[in-house]
Design brief:
This protein has 297 residues and is α/β, with parallel strands linked by helices. It has 10 helices and 8 strands. β5, α7 and β6 form a beta-alpha-beta unit. Bound molecules: zinc ion. The site of zinc ion (ZN) has 3 residues, from loops.
């Protein structure tokens, strides 16, 4: 009797979903959804920090996940063009199709870098919407957090106040952390570095570092011996302070170059989960800053 009564109450009060199922294309957005949604969300990340998010197989297990999703959050700007459209078609879930409230494209909320004036595919794996790897600048995370808080509130109105409160709290802690990272990283301003793929463009721009070359001869094209030989020569003329590569890059090119030039190779977690310390978004940036500072000690 009592149970029946509470069930009735539940039906008549503002309906709150049992949990919002969040399908994140990348781990950083799953981590952000946990910060803002707490125990009101169930998150799933389609990729890990050790996978190249440009190239994922549209596995049946991912289709099953997308079928149950209430909210999809992805970097966008065509990062997932090789696999997400297929998942969306196969999943047949109307709630999360582009244009619906359950579809959130994170990169639409930030100012994008490297937007090409003309798209020329002969220049490699060029992203026509600009560089999609926005997660490496914490200021971008803050902008996406605001959008995500609003979206969760709209999808689950019964818990709207809670999402707004948690988003607010997160922004407070996040801004304090940004100030801390910026002061720790002040010495990195103007420091020249080589990177494997243009995966850290936003991080480099945020900290005012200077990218002097890529190990990939063209975006998305693996390093060639010819290109690496050119870089060795370039490093002899004007050495960089470090060679960075991501947790999913093949480290061999960076290690080869490090051996030939004496410039340290530094692995940077590409996102949450990419190193022991990068357990959540705070740990991710703590680790990025520490790893970039290490060669300067
Ligand atoms: Zn890319």
């Amino acid at each position: 009797m009592k149970t029946a009564f509470s069930l009735l109450l539940l039906l008549f009060c503002a309906p709150a979903l049992a949990a919002v199922n969040v399908f994140a294309c990348e781990p950083e957005w799953a981590a952000l959804a946990r910060e803002i949604g707490g125990d009101k969300v169930k998150t799933f990340a389609a990729t890990t920090a050790f996978q190249d998010p440009h190239h994922i197989e549209a596995r049946p297990s991912l289709i099953a996940r997308i079928r149950n999703a209430d909210l999809l959050i992805c970097s966008g700007s065509e990062l997932e063009i090789g696999w997400l459209p297929l998942l969306l078609t196969q999943g047949g879930n109307d709630r999360i199709q582009p244009g619906s409230p359950g579809y959130l494209e994170a990169s639409q909320y930030v100012i994008k870098l490297e937007v090409p004036r003309v798209v020329d595919r002969s220049l490699g794996d060029v992203h026509p919407g600009g560089n999609p790897h926005i997660q490496t600048d914490p200021r971008n995370i803050a902008r996406v957090a605001a959008a995500l808080g609003e979206r969760l509130a709209a999808l689950d109105p019964g818990n709207a106040a809670l999402y707004r409160q948690k988003e607010n709290e997160f922004q407070g802690r996040w801004q304090a952390a940004i100030a801390r990272w910026q002061s720790q990283a002040a010495r990195l301003k103007g420091v020249p570095l080589l990177e494997h793929h243009k995966g850290f463009t936003y991080l480099i721009a945020w900290l005012g570092m200077r990218e002097v070359g890529d190990l990939e001869p063209k975006p998305g094209v693996p390093p060639t011996t010819e290109h690496l030989a050119e870089l060795v020569e370039q490093m002899q003329r004007a050495p960089a302070k470090m060679i960075v590569y991501s947790s999913y890059d093949d480290p061999r090119a960076a290690e080869f170059l490090a051996k030939r030039t004496g410039i340290p190779a530094v692995m940077l977690p590409f996102t949450v989960g990419g190193s022991d310390r990068a357990k959540d978004l705070f740990g991710y940036f703590d680790d990025l800053v520490a790893r970039l500072l290490a060669p300067l000690q």
